[in-house]
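Table S2 (text version). Query chain:
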Amino acid sequence: MAEMMNEKVKQWIIKADNDITIAGKDLKTDNPVTDAICFHAQQSAEKYLKAYLVFKDIEPEKTHKIERLVLTCITFDATFSALKAGDILTEYAVEFRYPDDFYIPDIEEAKEAYNLALKVKDFVLEWMK
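Corresponding structure-token output:
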């Protein structure tokens, strides 16, 4: 990563990397915990986007909404519009974490969430090179 990257950006990336790592490792188990995979995929995408904003000297909004973060990123670079599909990850941040809205995603949905988070990761890290 770029030498210009400050410590705060690096910390956001470490946290984002940890979330995507957990999601990826659990996908490879015999009994993947799909709701947790989706949660960590969302958290990862959120943190990569926030890392980009910190990289741009913007204090990121305290939100789990991927769409809002992407829209803020678009103000710096219109190519971030390629990440708008990642907004479907937002529902995994809060809505499905508690039994009030009980839902367990199937394995295909968990894989899709993971792949979307990887797309965000690759896009953000490439942009910050």
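Notes on Table S2: The chain has one domain: 7-127. The radius of gyration is 14 Å.
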